Amino acid sequence: MTAVSAGPALLEARGIAKTFGRVTALSDATFSAYAGEVSAIVGDNGAGKSTFIKILSGALMPDGGELLLDGAAVHFTSPQDARDHGIETVYQDLALAPALDVAANLFLGRELRLPGPLGRLGFLDDRAMRERARREIDDLHVGLSSVQQPVFTLSGGQRQAIAVARATAWGKRIVIMDEPTAALGVRESAMVLKLIERIKNAGLAVIMISHSMPEVFEVADRITILRLGRTVRRMRRDETSMTDVVAFMTGASVEHVADIER
Amino acid sequence: MSRTVWAPSAAQAPPRNPFARSANLYIFLVLLALVAFFSLISPNHAFFDRGNFINIAWDTAETLLLAIGETFVIITAGIDLSVGTVLMFSGVIASWVIAQTGGPPALVSNGHFPNAVTAIPLGIASGIAIGILAGLINGTLVTRLRMPAFIVTLGVFSIANGLGDLVSSGGAAGQSAIPPIPDSFANTLGNGNLIFGLPTLVVVAAFIALVTHIVLTRTLFGRRTFAVGSNLEGSRLAGVPVGSHVVWVYTLAGCMAGLAGVLDLARFHSTDIAGHSLDNLDAIAAVVIGGTSLFGGTGSILGTVIGAFIPTVLRYGFTIQGISSFWQDVVVGAIIIVAVLFDQIRRRGVT
Questions:
Q1: Buried-exposed string A239-248: b where 16+ CB fall within 10 A, e elsewhere
Q2: pLDDT, tens only, B130-172
């Protein structure tokens, strides 16, 4: 049994709208994520999932609606801004530098410098970064023999794990994952799903976009369905079925749109 | 229940950065083989001579300075075609500033520089400043206006070439060409010996190679250079200040070209306008031979140092053997192609 917390939402989006020129990507997206839970966002192609996740992660600014973090309105102007609020994103293409080693990737953009004058000159504290990277990798039970391996030598699943480890190492509150298993085989997908469970159990809020219904039903506590830029349904996983979700995604159950939860 | 999510197979645990390291080793062996070969076959082993090695180092030093800046640029997956003519323009400006501030024109044109003590540092500073300015322009156009580096630096290549010609020929004012530099400048920076009997230019180039090697491998600047070249958009998303970093990298390349221009002026007393227009290609050749990938993300100063020496060693070896120096171009061209071929093969394992 998964206990779904009844407390206030950690991150809440209300009536988010976003247009690109004449194209309306989002018209009324509503969503909430809770600490210690996995919240999935599902929808058909063109439903606005990617746009919505970019707004949540600070990569895009919405034209309308509001974002609330802990009940207070926030306006992210950049991914860095969202990061400063404890929100980390694992992008679909992972945003790793393949030529750099695992430790350097975990600390990409947040490199540790040596203490003292050498650090002020820009000298890196590679030993400290490796030790910390080792701990983060071990905490997620990613069996990597060395954090000094270049990322290009890793498998797709291992790369995904590095990206996830980076997000959880820095994400104090929320980790957003865009199609975390899209590029992976069956075995590696299962491993990433275990990682997601671990992050959730550590008390973070996980927001996940996925095409795969079986995966969504395996890990998600809540499911938000986007269709044509609108949130058409929000429900708990144990209140629904795959058939229902697919019906809402495709519009087959469009008569229920009026029943959107508030 | 297993606590480990997955364990990589032994095959997935190679030593750190194996390709960059082995690339350096191979190219170093090629250099050693060339030196050994020419030493053995040269009459009376004339090649294996301290004076000959110093001359080789001297002739390599300028290309090396350009190639060091170019290494940083190419690691970011960029290219700087302008360094050769920026070198020339920097030298022209340095000599112009020295002539203007060296003393009364009548004296200066006769080779007398009463104000040499202030004129020479001013000239050096202006030459380097011109290089920095050219690099800033390159970097700004590439990042802020998102123009292709190839085109931007080709434009700056042509502009620096034209301006250098204009200034040195006197331009609209119809002045005569810039007089030669003061002997005190040539004798200290140019032909002067610093330590162990090595030419100043060689010592400066070696020092800068050492410093930039440390910068590239040990500092945040180096780490960002590799990150940007390996995944530009990913680095941006991860919080690396991608735009400003790339501007700094092009500025560094320009600064190296300016410094090389000043040292070239000191060595040859005047700047040979036509002689430097293809230096950019020599620099890029040294970087590529040294194992730095044109696709970005990998490379080393050590490799570039070795890569800069190979063409000079070939030229000296051929000259001592009495072989036409044109063959040097042919062989260097073949080595470049082989080096890029190796890079392609290495990268097949990467992507």
A1: eeeeebbebb
A2: 999 999 999 999 999 989 999 999 999 999 999 988 888 765 4
| Amino acid in position B140 | T
- Chains A, B: CB contacts within 8 A come to 121
- B216 pLDDT tier (thresholds 50, 70, 90): very high
* Whether the Cβ atoms of residue B235 and residue A105 lie closer than 8 Å to each other: no
Give Cβ neighbours of residue B228 (< 8 Å, ≥ 6 apart): B76, B77, B235, B240, B242, B245, B246, B249, B296
Q: Which residues touch B164 (CB under 8 Å, ≥6 apart)?
A: B85, B88, B89, B92, B271, B273
Q: Scan for tokens 């400043």, then name that residue.
A: B129
Give yes or no for B13 touching A (CB within 8 A). Answer: yes
CB–CB contact B297 A140 (8 Å)? no
Which of B6, B8, B230 has the CB atom closest to A191's CB atom? B6
- Residue B36: count of CB within 10 angstroms of its CB: 12
CA distance B69 to chain A (A): 19
**Residue B157: other Cβ atoms inside 10 A:** 21
Amino acid found at A219: V
CB-based contact A36:A204 (threshold 8 Å): yes
Task: List chain A residues with CB under 8 Å of B75.
Answer: none
Query: B318 at the A interface (CB within 8 A)?
Result: no
Q: Select from B6, B8, B17 the Cβ nearest to the Cβ of A150.
A: B17
Q: Above 70 in pLDDT, residue B176?
A: no
B3 close to A (CB below 8 A) = yes
* Cα Rg of chain A (Å, integer): 19
Total-model pTM: 0.86
Judged by a CB distance cut-off of 8 A, whether residue B12 touches chain A is yes
Q: What is the ipTM of this complex?
A: 0.82
By Cβ distance, the residue of B3, B233, B238 closest to A108 is: B238
What SS3 state is found at A248? helix
Exposed, middle or buried: residue A223 (CB in 10 Å: 0-12, 13-18, 19+)? buried
- Name the H helices within B76-199: 83-101, 105-108, 116-143, 149-169, 183-185
